[in-house]
């Protein structure tokens, strides 16, 4: 008898020493979490996140070491009709007097009247770290509110970066808190429905939460090698809950199934380890490979997401192979307590006459077309998915701008009034120049000429009355000019103005200055450069993920055909998800239904991140389903029967896992920001398509059509046949009925 697989040996040790295994897991999670907290988080700087020419512009500005304090504003407008200039001036003077007494205000500027006389703007300079200004802006907002009370005939409101930052922090903070509070009960409720027993439903949640806690600590430690970003922790939670629950579902359902056949607790755990445990390892490795592809993007945001995701998947796999068998062995049949009466009768594992798991009647009906007419079913289903994927060919990529933020807050409503009255306060291009100090005067003259030329072009905002403001660093080596455009950051005319600056105006004015280095940045440049960065890196990341996944699947199933079909089906699933995203978010028909304002594009970072996440998570289902089909083939079933057995016997767990993921991801679609809505809907729709049409229709049709060819592989990959016995086997003992 050969050496047993490592998954079985780990499971057996854990099952035989449950308290040791549970204690070791608890210590591991605690050490990871406490160690990470003690080490502290190393966050990415603006330099770490520099991409393209916009990134170079940001680095040049940083090199100037400018004193760049946080600036907020008091905006005074009319509630109807023309603005009363005398009353507005009186309100501005009152606001200035009150604000000068507020702690945290470094200075109050002179009020500025809009070109059309519709508004008055009072600039306020705040003291302290600009990065924390939004945390300290509330006293200023309170002072402005008191001025509003004194002048009810005017609209007096606080608007600017710190005010908007505070409003968004409040809105998004409530959003994420609601998502976190909802995700746990939603997951638990779905698992209770899936298992019909409270303890069985609680175990996957506990494993997932402990995996997330350990991964959070490990990712904090890893941030000292790869800086972390704001998105790392939410993604660890999202991925950790998804895979942690999935892996537990696979394992527990198989263990319950074996116990229903009459196996002892230890035997049931060992069989679950050898089958579902092996599938968990392979699918976890596939997810890790997919996430590792993000490291090739050369972007600190994607790199931090990759590290966090890899860590949480690795921890979840480890937990499912160690502490999960220990819990199942210790609980025994108590895992099915307390039972929910009706749900238990519906979900309790049942077996047929020959010990095979019995599936709900729905799945044989769903499979019937694929098994009876595989070619026609395959052509029709693939054709429909390709039609759904077709809109992805017209995908546009952009960063969300200020105009895409939720308008439910007074700060964003005030921002709209600000940009209407003062176009230069809206979208700005940043021209950053680095040159020898003795060229500073020449650079200033060139930038002044650039501003004058731009002001005469309809793509740019008119010149301000006080002329262009060229900032020069203390060492006179760095000069910066803001060139405003009256259009929103994602408006095509803003992009045209950027292209005109980069291709014509800036080179024409700065050409010939010795030792000069320049770049054009700003919000529009950030969006365009990042979108191009994603387009450039997506083929590289996809190639890496596809090649390594193909190799893993080939060596796992010893079949080139299975590996190739896995890649094809996952690409089909991802393409359909892309097409659905474009249909929903690049048009306007779904705005009222889903509560968003179309930005006419997909968020720049989403396609790359969505691809690796979907490819990794889809492999969970694929590995589990194909493993069950292979079990049927190895037990001697004909190919068609093996396909039916594999799909129907895994239908319950795949459906339950998919419903959990769709439920959690859908919660993210309720958040206020457009990027979270697109992420939530994209993930939920893709998982739903993958677990239903792909696994329930396309996969069985393809494998039925291919028949024995499914398992073809070159000779060197084929498993070696077992050596022939030297002696004839002993006859089986005769079974004697017990009286």
Structure description:
The chain is of the alpha+beta class. Among the domains are: 1-40 and 196-350, Up-down Bundle (Multidrug efflux transporter AcrB transmembrane fold); 71-167, Alpha-Beta Plaits, CATH 3.30.70.1320; 411-528, Alpha-Beta Plaits (2-Layer Sandwich), CATH 3.30.70. Helix content is 62%, strand content 8%. It has 23 helices and eleven strands. The strands form three sheets. Strands 1, 2, 3, 4 and 5 form a five-stranded antiparallel β-sheet that branches. It has a four-stranded antiparallel β-sheet with strand order 8-9-7-10, with helices on both faces. The chain is elongated and about 90 Å long.
Shape, per Cα inertia axes: elongated
Q: Could you tell me the radius of gyration in angstroms? A: 31 Å
Helix-strand makeup class: alpha+beta
Task: Provide the helix percentage.
Answer: 55-70%
The CATH superfamily name of the domain at 1-40 and 196-350 is: Multidrug efflux transporter AcrB transmembrane domain
CATH topology group of the domain at 1-40 and 196-350: Multidrug efflux transporter AcrB transmembrane fold
The CATH architecture of the domain at 1-40 and 196-350: Up-down Bundle
Specify the biggest β-sheet.
5 strands, antiparallel
CATH class of the domain at 1-40 and 196-350: Mainly Alpha
Tell how many strands the DSSP assignment holds: 11
Point out poorly predicted stretches: 722-739
State which percent range the strand residues make up.
Answer: 5-15%
What is the first-to-last residue Cα distance? 35 Å
| Count of alpha and pi helical runs | 23
Average pLDDT rating = 85
């Amino acid at each position: 008898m050969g050496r047993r697989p490592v998954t079985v040996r780990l499971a057996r040790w854990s099952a035989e020493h449950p308290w040791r295994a549970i204690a070791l897991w608890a210590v591991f999670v605690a050490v990871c979490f406490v160690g990470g907290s003690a080490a502290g988080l190393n966050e990415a700087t603006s330099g770490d996140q520099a991409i393209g020419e916009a990134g170079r512009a940001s680095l040049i500005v940083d090199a100037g070491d400018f004193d760049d304090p946080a600036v907020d504003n008091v905006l005074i407008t009319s509630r109807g009709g023309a603005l009363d200039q005398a009353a507005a001036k009186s309100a501005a003077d009152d606001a200035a007097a009150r604000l000068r007494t507020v702690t945290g205000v470094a200075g109050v500027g002179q009020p500025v009247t809009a070109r059309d006389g519709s508004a008055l703007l009072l600039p306020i300079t705040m003291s302290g770290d600009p990065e924390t200004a939004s945390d300290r802006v509330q006293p200023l907002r309170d002072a402005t509110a008191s001025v509003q009370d004194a002048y009810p005939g005017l609209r007096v409101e606080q608007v600017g970066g710190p005010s908007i930052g505070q409003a968004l922090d409040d809105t998004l903070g409530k959003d994420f808190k609601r998502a976190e509070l909802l995700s746990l009960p939603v997951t638990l409720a779905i698992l209770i429905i899936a298992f019909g027993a409270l303890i069985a439903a609680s175990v996957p949640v506990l494993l997932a939460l402990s995996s997330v806690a350990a991964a959070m600590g490990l990712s904090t430690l890893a941030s000292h090698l790869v800086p972390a970003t704001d998105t790392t922790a939410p993604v660890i939670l999202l991925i950790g809950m998804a895979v942690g629950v999935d892996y537990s579902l696979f394992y527990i359902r198989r263990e319950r199934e074996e116990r229903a056949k009459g196996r002892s607790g230890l035997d049931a755990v060992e069989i679950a380890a050898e089958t579902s445990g092996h599938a968990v390892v392979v699918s976890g490795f596939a997810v890790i490979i997919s996430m590792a592809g993000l490291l090739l993007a050369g972007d600190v945001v994607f790199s931090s997401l990759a590290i966090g995701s890899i860590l949480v998947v690795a921890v979840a796999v480890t937990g499912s192979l160690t502490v999960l068998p220990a819990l199942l062995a210790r609980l025994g049949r108590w895992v099915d307590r307390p039972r929910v009466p009706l749900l238990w009768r519906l979900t309790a594992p049942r077996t047929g006459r020959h010990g095979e798991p019995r599936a709900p009647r729905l799945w044989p009906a769903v499979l019937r077309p694929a098994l009876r007419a595989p070619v026609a079913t395959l052509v029709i289903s693939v054709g429909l998915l390709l039609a759904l994927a077709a809109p992805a060919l017209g995908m546009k990529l952009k960063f969300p701008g200020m105009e895409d933020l939720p308008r439910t807050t007074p700060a964003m409503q005030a921002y709209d009034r600000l940009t209407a009255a003062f176009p230069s306060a809206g979208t700005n291009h940043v021209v950053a120049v680095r040159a020898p100090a003795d060229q500073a005067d020449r650079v200033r003259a060139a930038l002044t000429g650039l501003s004058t030329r731009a002001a005469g072009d309809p793509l740019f905002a008119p010149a301000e009355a006080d002329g262009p403001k060229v900032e020069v660093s203390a060492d006179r080596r760095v000069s910066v000019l803001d060139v405003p455009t009256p259009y929103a950051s994602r408006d095509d005319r803003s992009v045209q103005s950027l292209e005109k600056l980069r291709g014509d105006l800036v080179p024409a004015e700065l050409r010939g200055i010795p030792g000069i280095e320049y770049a054009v940045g700003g919000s529009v440049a950030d969006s365009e450069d990042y979108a191009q960065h994603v387009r450039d890196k997506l083929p590289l990341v996809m190639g890496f993920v596809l090649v390594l996944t193909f190799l893993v699947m080939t060596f796992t199933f010893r079949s080139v055909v299975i590996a190739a079909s896995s890649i094809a089906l996952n690409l089909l699933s991802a393409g359909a998800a892309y097409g659905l995203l474009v249909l929903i978010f690049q048009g306007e028909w779904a705005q009222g239904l889903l509560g968003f304002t179309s930005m006419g594009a997909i968020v720049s970072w989403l396609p790359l991140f969505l691809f690796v996440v979907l490819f990794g998570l889809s492999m969970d289902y694929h590995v589990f389903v194909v493993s069950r089909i292979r079990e049927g083939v190895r037990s001697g079933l004909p190919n068609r029967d093996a396909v039916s057995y594999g799909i129907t016997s895994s239908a319950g767990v795949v459906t339950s896992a998919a419903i959990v993921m769709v439920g959690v991801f859908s919660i993210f679609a309720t958040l206020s920001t457009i990027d979270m809505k697109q992420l939530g809907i994209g993930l939920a729709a893709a998982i739903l398509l993958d677990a239903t049409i792909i696994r329930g229709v396309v996969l069985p049709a393809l494998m039925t059509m291919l028949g024995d060819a499914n398992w073809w592989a070159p000779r060197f990959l084929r498993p070696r046949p077992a050596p022939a016995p030297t002696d004839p086997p002993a006859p089986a003992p005769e079974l004697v009925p017990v009286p």
